[in-house]
Specification:
Elements lengths: L4 E7 L3 E7 L11 E4 L3 E2 L5 E3 L1 H21 L4 E8 L4 E4 L5 E6 L17 H4 L8 H11 L1 H5 L3 E3 L1 H10 L6 H5 L4 E2 L4 E2 L1 H5 L23 H6 L7 E2 L3 E2 H8 L7 E6 L3 E8 L10 E6 L2 E8 L3 H10 L6 H7 L8 E3 L17 E3 L7 H24 L7 E5 L1 H4 L2 H11 L3 E4 L4 H14 L12 E5 L5 H20 L4
Parallel strand pairs: 1-6, 6-12, 6-13, 14-20, 20-21
Antiparallel strand pairs: 1-2, 2-3, 4-5, 5-8, 7-8, 7-9, 10-11, 14-15, 15-17, 16-17, 18-19, 21-22
Helix pairs in contact: 9-15, 11-14, 12-14
Length: 484
């Protein structure tokens, strides 16, 4: 391993980590820090985190990585970032937060979605409570004083830069996923802004997007001398970083990622794009789009089952051997509403078919099959676009730690699923993009990701998953009405 060296920060939905990468975008063993946290949730659908609590976790991770590089005589040349998309907070004129970070899983804004113009064809964002517009209407009614005191609206990475450099610096990637950005004109969507109780000058300035910073505030420069020469680049959205880090650089390669939530995406390098209904479209940067779908219920469904059910110790072996649908259950795994393909924050989970013979393992199997069916819907939407999603590459610890679940995915998609063996794809993607921007590499595609096993769809599972999909659709219509 050799330099130049890049630090990548990943602010995820359940942890913050900072890792070190060498000049070949290989994660350096023995370097890194990770701190976990849990969102503050409320019975009415709230999902928040205090901005300064998240800031402290991020600074602590950077402190630890700096201690490690300093002990080894390493100087860092670039710092990149990955952060969860869609969430935001407000700050007043002094930079003090006016309300906590509202996470994408916060569903309290659901009643306000219908009050907004449907700008999907322009913004790439389906009408949904996970985006900024509905949350802003909710704030205007329920947090009126806090919103009135807000001078600037920003994502957490911009707040981090404000603390580190005295200036909030945004990436196009983060702004493109707010629901306020017109993907093809390259500016804020005027019709959407007109429907919201905010001013344009409260939003990040497009002229400064993606620009690096290098002059740390004195207190940080004093503590982090090995970062003195580094260029710090604004964080990209975690989904964009996951695609880059798992080697999915083009529209032929679909990234299947399952972490706390889940998504399937392709990167498209083009001057403009037509956005298909049902899918979302954001940006990596000014030359690359990200097209895909997302599930609000991914790995957290598995985590819930582990917490709530008395699962057998041999659960993984049983998952690998299980016949799809043998539990006789039908599941809608909508613990936190759902995005693709339903785009409804008011949905909630349901299980039918329970009997006295039902075991906790049966519920787990049905839940994981239900999530897999959701990815099957996303894949069908992506694959309907010419030349798109010919190859599926899977990443995310929630999925790849379970070969049984990964096999379910291949069966539900009806396509081979290739396991990405890069340990931290979002961090690696952030490092790759920072390396490209800093001129360390010419193009992110110069350093492909490593891959491992291939999960082939089982022919006998095709009909079984078709029946599961039909049963799931019928239950959805009975409980929630026809799909829009």
């Amino acid at each position: 391993m050799f330099g130049p060296y890049t630090v990548a920060i990943d602010v995820g939905s359940s942890s913050v980590r900072a890792l070190l990468f060498d000049g070949e975008a290989r994660q350096m063993e023995g370097f890194g820090a990770q701190l976990t946290y849990r969102l503050r949730t409320t019975p009415d659908g709230g999902a928040e985190i205090d901005a300064n609590d998240l800031l402290d976790l991020t600074l602590d991770c950077l402190d630890e990585v700096h201690r490690q590089v300093q002990a080894n005589g390493i100087e860092v040349e670039a710092v990149g970032g990955s952060a969860f998309w869609h969430s935001f907070l407000g700050i007043d004129a002094t930079g003090k937060p006016t309300f906590p970070i509202l996470h994408l899983l916060d569903t309290r804004a659901e009643p306000y979605v219908d009050q907004l113009p449907d700008a999907h064809a322009r913004t790439g964002c389906m009408p949904h409570a996970s985006y900024w517009p509905a949350k802003l209407l909710w704030l205007a009614e329920h947090r009126k004083a806090e919103l009135a005191a807000t001078a600037h609206l920003l994502s957490f990475p911009e707040y981090l830069f404000l603390q580190l450099f005295g200036r909030a610096r945004a990436s196009l990637s983060m702004v493109s996923a707010t629901g306020l950005w017109n993907q093809n004109t390259g500016d804020y969507d005027t019709q959407m802004l007109a429907a919201l109780p905010i001013r344009r000058d409260q939003l990040p300035d497009p002229a400064t997007f993606d620009q690096p910073e290098s002059q740390l505030r004195p207190q940080f420069l004093r503590d982090w001398p090995c970062f003195e020469k580094a260029k710090w680049f604004p964080a990209l959205g975690d989904g964009a970083c996951n695609n880059l880090g798992s080697g999915c650089f083009s529209r032929e390669q679909a990234s299947l990622m399952v972490g706390t939530t889940g998504a399937m995406r392709v990167v498209i390098e083009a001057p403009s794009i037509e956005i298909p209904r049902g899918l979302w479209c954001y940006r990596v940067d000014r030359k690359r789009f990200v097209l895909g779908g997302a599930l609000s219920n991914g790995g957290e469904v598995f985590a819930w089952a582990k917490r709530a059910l008395q699962l057998p110790k041999d659960q993984e072996a049983r998952l690998e051997a299980a016949v799809p649908g043998s539990h006789q259950l039908t599941v809608l795994p909508f613990f936190s509403g759902e995005r693709t393909p339903y785009w409804r924050g008011d949905l909630r989970a349901a299980i039918t078919g329970l009997s006295f013979s039902t075991e906790p393992f049966h519920i787990l199997q049905a839940l994981l099959e239900g999530v897999s069916l959701g990815f099957g819907e996303i894949y069908r939407l992506l694959a309907s676009q010419p030349g798109t999603a010919q190859e599926v590459i899977a990443s995310g610890g929630a999925l790849l730690k379970s070969p049984g679940w990964t096999q379910m995915m291949a069966d539900a998609l009806g396509r081979p699923v290739i396991a990405c063996t890069e340990a931290e794809t979002s961090c690696r993607g952030a490092a790759l993009w920072a390396m490209e921007q800093a001129g360390i590499i010419a193009n992110i595609s110069d350093l492909p990701a490593s891959t491992g096993g291939v999960f082939q769809p089982r022919p006998e599972a095709r009909e079984q998953f078709r029946r599961l999909r039909d049963a799931q659709s019928a239950l959805y219509e009975k409980l929630f009405g026809p799909r829009q």
